[in-house]
Design goal:
GO terms for molecular function: deoxyhypusine monooxygenase activity; metal ion binding. Pathway: Protein modification; eIF5A hypusination. The protein has 268 residues and is mainly α. It folds into two domains: 93 residues, Leucine-rich Repeat Variant (Alpha Horseshoe); 98 residues, Leucine-rich Repeat Variant. Helix content is 59%, strand content 0%.
Amino acid sequence: MLQGKNFVTEWDGLEDDSALFRHEVAFCLGQRQDPAAIQTLESILRDTAEHPMVRHEAGEALGAIGSPACIPPLRDHAADGCLEVAQTCQLALQRIEFLEGHEPCDPSAPQRYLSVDPTPPAPAATPTPALAATLLDDGARIFDRYRALFALRDRGGEEALEALAGAFASSSALLKHEVAYVLGQMQDARAVACLKRVLGDAGEAAMVRHEAAEALGAIADRACLALLQQYTEDAEPIVADSCIVALDMLEFEQSGGFQYADDGAVAT
């Protein structure tokens, strides 16, 4: 667990005009897993005037911290009027409950992805078709679908990518945004085509299109450049700003200075 009390920069960022930036700040507070951030995150979650994507990230961050003090606000919003916020709080509560009854992962085991994820992956021995079936089942618990998602990420390969791409047909914007995030972590150029379709779909939720844009930036395929430039003028500010960020990510990745999987994570 990363700890510290110097949250001046992060808290200042929560006053920023950009919802995209505020959600990134909330994500970072969760990744640090420091209980000192709980009160701030709780106030964001409870603020129904805040952008739903920022509230979602605050709920996920509380789940990442996972201390007993995180449970009451998560319970209070597990039936929130915003479905994505409600599902996030349900996931966070299930993560806390799961980790209370299971041994933590072996810290000596090799891990490619260092992000603090909303759920642990499904067991590594689970066959890929079974993981895909769970991920694509809109009637399954979202906690189980997320576990399948992260197991597929960890497995990698064409069959896993095909299952992840198929999840964009889901009715859950929360799940789809996490799929796009995971595809960015994997940095597999075979995911570019489906991410382009998601970014270009004006009827898709902003949180999903935002993650698709940043995933394209992380994959850093030059073929993505024109598309990202096109959507920097999108009518949805979160999408437009995400494309600007993605262009910076693409440039930095191609310079050899950015290691998406090894040095951390970008907000979900």
